[in-house]
Design a protein that fits this description.
By secondary structure, the protein is α/β, with parallel strands linked by helices. It has two domains: about 50 residues, no CATH class; about 230 residues, 3-Layer(aba) Sandwich (Rossmann fold), CATH 3.40.50.1820. Helices cover about 35% and strands about 20% of the residues. Strand 1 and strand 2 form a beta hairpin. Helix 1 packs antiparallel against helix 2 and helix 7 crosses helix 8. The longest helix has 19 residues.
Length: about 300
């Protein structure tokens, strides 16, 4: 069986069976490899047709999903290196994108999922820069060679890292960005899946050093740590995301108990990963709404 994905345009996302979406969620979170994902989908039959085609259509198509070119005249993008004491190797690398102009600019850290700095997250950083933010997308895999060019190997690499050291690399990335010469000193953080949980971690760890935090479908922090949060929070949930949504009630209870300012939205008709426009989990309408709210929130708190 080939691992080459079929053309997603031949598959309507609404026609992909929910069981395939569930399998893909397990695959994305490292509970099976790609071949196992395909093999388990191949034994499913939906309307008399193998679900393998549906499974192949789930894989990301990064080139087609790009929204902002790296040559866009509104921005200037480059890779930067910086110290990261207590991290995986003591050094880090990230994708820094600045708006056109002299600055200083409000800054936004963009944190990847559980597979390193892939092209989608770089595109998100460029999107933020076109809105007037100095954006840094750190690559948690940089200390062991960097994002390898595909998500499967990236996921394996990230799972091999010490979690505490990886979080330290994200913490140091936030501090590097906040103190950057092009930054106005106000910091926002956003991230997706693993990155969403890391946003919540940074909101706790940075306290008053971060002004605004926008986690997308990320794991909640420990209830006992919520009192340390000083950032304004804009929290996003997918409607159909049982693992993450199971943490929502306790998180909100802790936020209220500690008088932490927050907004919390669940987006109807969405699944985990709905903001990522490189796979069929993408929900164009709800992703646009969530992103527009994110930008407005950052402008309110950082500009």
């Amino acid at each position: 069986m080939s691992d080459t994905p079929l053309d997603q345009t031949a598959v309507d996302p609404d026609q992909i069976d929910p069981l395939v979406y569930d399998l893909y969620d397990e695959y994305c979170h490292g509970r099976m490899d790609r071949r196992d994902f395909f093999n388990r989908a191949a034994v499913l039959t939906v309307g008399g047709v193998s679900a393998l085609t549906m499974a192949q259509a789930m894989l990301p198509r990064y080139a087609a999903a790009q929204t902002i070119s790296f040559t866009d005249k509104r921005i200037k993008a480059r890779y930067v290196e910086y110290d990261s004491p207590g991290g995986t190797s003591g050094r880090m690398r990230g994708y820094l994108v600045q708006p056109a102009g002299a600055g200083p600019f409000p800054s936004v850290l963009v944190i990847h999922e559980n597979r390193g700095l892939n092209p989608h997250i770089e595109d998100v950083a460029r999107r933020a820069a076109t809105e007037g933010f100095l954006a840094l997308a750190p690559d948690g895999l940089a200390p062991i060679g960097g994002y390898p060019g595909n998500d499967d190997d990236g996921r394996t690499m990230q799972s091999s890292l010490d979690g505490a050291k990886l979080r330290a690399d994200m913490l140091n990335s936030a501090r590097y960005l906040k103190k950057h010469a092009l930054s106005n000193g106000k910091l926002g953080v956003t991230g997706f899946c693993w990155g969403g949980g890391t946003v919540n971690y940074l909101a706790v760890a940075l306290g008053g050093d971060v002004q605004a935090a926008v986690p997308f479908y990320g794991a909640a922090p420990k209830a006992a740590d919520v009192a340390k949060i000083r950032a304004a929070l804009l929290i996003r949930y997918a409607e159909n995301d049982p693992r993450i949504n199971a943490m929502r009630e306790g998180f909100e209870k802790a936020l209220k108990a500690n008088n932490v300012g927050y907004e919390m939205h669940s987006y109807p008709g969405t699944r985990h990963g709905f903001h990522n426009n490189s796979t069929p989990r993408y929900n164009k309408e709800q992703a646009k709404l969530a992103w527009d709210r994110t930008i407005a929130f950052f402008k309110k708190h950082l500009m």
